[in-house]
């Protein structure tokens, strides 16, 4: 500003500066913060921020689901306010050095107490919030309630911990170049194996004393002034460590405080609550040079899985002592067993990927640069139709969330199952701005589930559906047929004279033949049909949407396929089937009734010469009932004296002389009345009664002739 001599303003001079860049930066920051808030509010986890003193300054609504407290009730408190005193002390000790180092932390496991006093196991991860000068303003992080998952995955977690220990061990061996460098890292593996302390002792060959050279664990003070030797005459040499070194074998002491051999260390062990100890010898050039020792606070802690792992780890270290050379297979094992995380993908409203995490890349194979800007269809496997995705997005539009199982494709083309949860993120106007997808690879779970389910639903010999699975499929098929008005055919198949093969060649050959028969039958039907083995040499086939002509055609194809000679080891075998056919709904309205009808028809096929098929009819049912009555009565006919012999003379035509008599068998049943031989002889043959009846006829005829 310039003024004249009288003080009046005569001119102004100034400068201007554009603040567009700052405004844009502020807007980007606001959007970034809003995106964080949006993701936090839709997440099922508890997302939080603290100040430098650890007091909560922001918590997401996830805290209410986890602890039962509203967000405003948590603000101003610290994480330790929601822990039991012992837990707070332990977590505080673990967390003590992290803020001072301004370091991030991941998966800090702790137990928090909710409003109702219930404990929740949680995993806490956080990253420091720093100002421009690098000063700590606080932490931003996430708490995840793992209580339910922990209950389901206890065994999986335990095995994962064991394999992580193996992985860490192998990686340490690869990275280290000397025993002095390796031993501290190796002792630290105890944190993965669930043990409380580990130490490595090296043998002084001159004095026989075992000298600790590395240790790990919160109670490593146990080793202060400890005396251990390998001398069997010394009480200090009769414990697990001395015995392991002296006898060159692993020693598993599962009840340490009650073992007389460990008496010199009982007082010390009681102070640290050691209840189980393992000692494994370490070797160099084949000689025992020390031992790897682990301590647990639970008796019986060293089960079979732990033993195998620890033995393998000790063996690996022994190899490392010989030269620290590890082959590619160990490196590969370390990579294979590396633990993964849940993948996260954020898309815009057009479905284009705007952000992914490292786990996304690890699971899918696509790096961040490859994924950004592409649609989520990048992972599509092609297994799901438009109806599946339409239902998915209908659910998201209706409720803002969807979760379920889906099959996706990795970058290398492999298709894998994943558990996917999609949440919708809304902007300030309540309109969708982003979608967050969180997924995990469930291949191992699906494989384990299949292994569990397979014995319950499939025949162990042939791999065909068993009786239980057949019934489920058949009931489903009959339900569909009832709604659509279509027919269903049930074929009951029995192999003719199969028992002869088992009796002459043995069950092993018979079993291999059954496997081949099942395979051929499976090739003769459609994908939607079912071939099942019921046991022995009996099979059942369910055909969907077929009429009688179709069923007859399939039956003939099965007969022709089975009739072709089988080659089993050095034998050429021929077997034929007898097939009974029942049709829904004319021959039965449920699966059990249809099976009975088909079984009846199958027996008719056997009566008519075998290697053929027959349909069920009411007349066949009546015949079956009559046959059962005849067989039951015939078994008692001899004892009741119901059989009689009639004699018919045989006369020579030339001169009329009687040259013999023909004995004719007659049966007058007290239940059924007069039964003709043409009817009951066949029943006797099929039921295995013909031989005792024949013997009775001979004895009776001879006795009567003699009289």
Description:
Helix content is 42%, strand content 26%. By secondary structure, it is of the alpha+beta class. A hairpin with a 5-residue loop joins strand 15 (401-409) and strand 16 (415-426). Helix 7 runs parallel beside helix 12 and helix 19 runs antiparallel to helix 20 (507-523).
Q: How much is the radius of gyration in Å?
A: 41 Å
* DSSP summary, beta strand count: 27
- The overall average pLDDT, rounded, is 83
Largest sheet: 5 strands, antiparallel
**Which structural class fits the helix and strand makeup?**
alpha+beta
Main attributes of the structure:
single chain; 707 residues; alpha+beta; five-stranded antiparallel beta sheet; 42% helix
Summarize the topology.
Layout: E1 2-3, E2 9-11, H1 20-42, E3 46-51, E4 56-59, H2 62-67, H3 71-74, H4 85-95, H5 97-101, E5 105-113, E6 119-130, E7 136-145, H6 147-152, H7 154-175, H8 179-187, H9 190-193, E8 197-203, E9 210-216, H10 240-247, E10 251-253, H11 266-272, E11 276-284, E12 287-296, H12 304-323, H13 328-336, E13 343-348, E14 353-356, H14 358-364, H15 368-371, H16 386-399, E15 401-409, E16 415-426, E17 432-441, H17 443-457, H18 467-484, E18 488-495, H19 498-505, H20 507-523, E19 530-535, E20 538-544, H21 548-563, E21 566-568, E22 571-573, E23 577-584, H22 591-607, E24 613-615, H23 618-640, E25 643-651, E26 658-669, E27 673-675, H24 677-686, H25 690-706
Parallel strand pairs: 23-24
Antiparallel strand pairs: 1-2, 3-4, 3-7, 5-6, 6-7, 8-9, 8-12, 10-11, 11-12, 13-14, 13-17, 15-16, 16-17, 18-20, 18-23, 19-20, 21-22, 25-26, 26-27
Helix pairs in contact: 7-12, 7-13, 19-20
